Amino acid sequence: MAERAAGSYNPPLDDIGEALEVAGLPAVLALARFSHIDAGMVKVVLGELGRFAAEVIAPTDTAGDRQGARYDPATGAVSTPPGFADAYRRYVESGWGALQFPQEHGGGGFPSVVGLALQEMFASANMALSLNPVLTQGAVELLLAWGDDNQRRAYLPRLVTGEWSATMDLTEPDAGSDLGAVHTYAEPGPDGRWDVSGTKIFITWGEHDMAANIVHLVLARAPGGPPGTKGLSVFLVPKFVPGPGGEPGTPNSLRCARLEEKLGIHGAPTCVMEYDHARGELVGPLHGGMRAMFTMMNLARLSIGAEGPAVAERAYQQAAAYAASRRQGHRPGQPAAQPSPIIEHPDVARMLLEMRTLALASRLVLYLASASGDLGRHGATEADRARGHAYFDLLTPVAKAWCTSNGLIATSLGLQVYGGAGYVEETGIAQRLRDARIAPIYEGTNGIQAVDLVVRKVPKDDGRWVHSLLGDIAVTAARAADQKELGPTSEVLAEARDALAGATEWVLERGAETLDDVLAGASAYLELMGATAGGWLMAERALAALHDGARFEVAAGESNFFAVETLASARALARQATAGAERLAVLRRPG
Ligand SMILES: Cc1cc2nc3c(=O)[nH]c(=O)nc-3n(C[C@H](O)[C@H](O)[C@H](O)COP(=O)(O)OP(=O)(O)OC[C@H]3O[C@@H](n4cnc5c(N)ncnc54)[C@H](O)[C@@H]3O)c2cc1C
């Protein structure tokens, strides 16, 4: 049986470079905000990071899965698996965490889309460990957008480097998808600070031994606010209240009460956090916490989306290597005494190509969403910024949900490629599937992303931005039709575009009348948009290689494969998306 290949991660730098280009990195780098950066610097940085991910982070992955984070009930302390603290220290020292933050706050000033490529490689190397910086970076964005000068001075320098880490504390036993049910409350204290009390569950990296301080961003209810989400505010509650010189000072009144036992990401502690009159600071407006928290959540949604291609890529690399070495059966025409490597069997080749194209297409959709965010924030004209913001808003739920679903499909296929050896832990591929399973759940379940898409994002500005996206796709389909090598791509892409256009009109009309009908097809609609956007960008990727014969041949082949294997389901998805709610009436409720 193949050995568990713990450290073998090969960063797909060429694929990432191509995806950045197709997603619009050149336009982002042309903005005044990024005048100190050029494409060559991005390439060097990603190369260095890839090496770091492969050589320093990936070797910690198996120990993290096998041993997991450990809890000491006597002290409430959490210890991380072997190698995590050292790898994290080296990550902080090398400055990777600061890459995409503004230079005035000690960052490297790179675009967010480059930061997302970094996160993807980190997550491929060790998904559990990579969650720690994802949360810290989200907290930095929140403080940049909503913190006051004192908060920025006290917290940003150490969060930007990763010397201190952060958490996002939303979920409670009765408040999961519906944060309007949050009970944790905050009362004003005498010194302008707040007393925060309550229990938060499922808090990722809520307690650990890798950073000198942990900054919790807690969603809580303060007096005087309306019920529901409109009465919520964000409070910054540090594990150690910083002293006058900024050093971690007095321990705060909070503790990790236990860790969850879970299916995957064993190296990432999932904590029940108890706050008992803990000292906190209000961040952003009182009773305006959801808007502030969404700054963190929207970016975290793309980071979690990146776990999709990250696990798909890692599983693909493992499964392809296994399939090249495992011999079983023989291809027709070959002597039975000479078993073939299973990669020669068409069905195995199909599975591997599906994994690869899901990783490629997911990466493209994610990077487009992120690059749109960069254009939205820093675009040269009002019109550029409006379009950037709108595409970022529209594509974020799609990128989170479609890409994490693809991660699950790809890791499951990877396990299938291994046959029985995939189902036992020794080969390591099972970890990919177990780790991948959380991504469609946390950071807003994929079902909630679908609701967000059809209820808020698609109807925005009377559907103007979906229509704009449909226009972009039509242009690419027409360009692809001029290339005979892209025959299946152009044909299926045009069909999928029409299917998405039809479903969109239905969503816009029906949503105004019978919301339940639209909600019943929301997940299918999201998948339809994800697949169509993925097919569009796969075609763009092939067209971008037109002048490089060998590259074009492969990219066109991958685009055609994706079109037939994944995108061709668009018509069926459109049918599901528009089937209405009546078909659900046959469900029998227990009891
Ligand atoms: C390992 C792990 C790490 C996590 N990390 C964090 C963290 O760091 N911080 C944090 O705050 N939380 C964290 N979470 C919590 C996570 O975000 C929630 O589990 C998730 O948002 C879903 O909430 P829930 O579990 O209460 O499920 P529920 O809200 O009970 O949902 C159950 C099902 O019902 C569906 N559903 C619910 N409401 C609707 C609706 N209105 N329309 C359609 N479908 C609906 C959901 O899609 C889901 O399928 C973590 C969870 C896990 C397991």
Give an overview of the whole structure.
- With 591 residues, the chain is an alpha+beta fold.
- Helix content is 56%, strand content 12%.
- Strands 3, 4, 5, 6, 7, 10 and 11 form a seven-stranded mixed beta sheet that branches. Strands 1-2 form a two-stranded antiparallel ribbon.
- The N and C termini lie far apart (48 Å).
For the structure shown, list the relevant keywords.
591 residues, alpha+beta, seven-stranded mixed beta sheet, two-stranded antiparallel sheet, 21 helices, 56% helix, disordered N terminus, binds flavin-adenine dinucleotide
Helix-strand blueprint:
Elements: H1 13-23, H2 25-29, H3 39-57, H4 61-67, E1 70-72, E2 77-79, H5 84-94, H6 112-125, H7 127-146, H8 149-161, E3 165-169, E4 185-188, E5 194-204, E6 214-221, E7 232-238, E8 240-242, E9 248-251, E10 254-259, E11 270-283, H9 289-305, H10 307-325, H11 346-378, H12 382-418, H13 420-423, H14 429-436, H15 446-457, H16 464-481, H17 487-513, H18 515-520, H19 522-544, H20 549-565, H21 570-577
Parallel strand pairs: 3-6
Antiparallel strand pairs: 1-2, 4-5, 5-11, 6-7, 7-11, 8-9, 10-11
The structure holds flavin-adenine dinucleotide.
Distance between the termini: 48 Å
The dominant shape is globular
Compute the number of strand runs: 11
Which compounds are bound in this model? flavin-adenine dinucleotide
Helical segment count: 21
pLDDT averaged over residues? 96
Low-pLDDT residue intervals, each spanning 5 or more residues: 1-7
Which percent range fits the helix content?
55-70%
- Structural class call reads alpha+beta
